[in-house]
Amino acid sequence: xxxxxxxxxxxxxxxxxxxxxxxxxxxxxxxxxxxxxxxxxxxxxxxxxxxxxxxxxxxxxxxxxxxxxxxxxxxxxxxxxxxxxxxxxxxxxxxxxxxxxxxxxxxxxxxxxxxxxxxxxxxxxxxxxxxxxxxxxxxxxxxxxxxxxxxxxxxxxxxxxxxxxxxxxxxxxxxxxxxxxxxxxxxxxxxxxxxxxxxxxxxxxxxxxxxxxxxxxxxxxxxxxxxxxxxxxxxxxxxxxxxxxx
Length: 246
What we know:
Elements: H1 3-18, H2 22-35, H3 40-52, H4 56-69, H5 74-86, H6 90-103, H7 108-152, H8 162-192, H9 198-211, H10 213-245
Helix pairs in contact: 1-2, 1-3, 2-3, 3-4, 3-5, 4-5, 5-6, 6-7, 7-8
């Protein structure tokens, strides 16, 4: 551990961030973390660098690490909230900002961030009510227009009586399903932004295999079985030699 060199690397990273060079800043912050892994500031700053280059999963992980190293530091929760806000997890961002404010009530930047997140939560709740009704209305409208077209623009209408109502109702249901699909895709997209990249998953799988007791057991027992077979063969050869001599 070399705190002086770590501080120097972190300051270089800060200079890069001021110049808008987030990628280069990331390397300096990583160097600072290697030199002093217990410094929460380096993780916090690297979280911001990751956020700038849209590496949201790593940005969130570094923010969590900063919180783990110093739980009473409001900036760690602010970093976490920034990642959550950027990825559309507005309620989570509200929770993080509120935690940060509870640790430092005088920070106006935190209060401003909280207000923005709360406003987005309100918009999402309003959209969750408004969009389904709009979608159903559009579905009904399309169904009515198609019914009118069938009635007035064809020589022999194919929709009669209650079939018309069922036809219009069907399009209303399709509109509702469309709104549900919209929210599902939106939520999936936001969640995917915080998923680990493929190379991270591969690395985790390799780590799991190397630490799997069954796999390790198999690796240990295989050589012992082979050696047992060799010992058995050697013993049989010796017995044959003794028999030939006698």
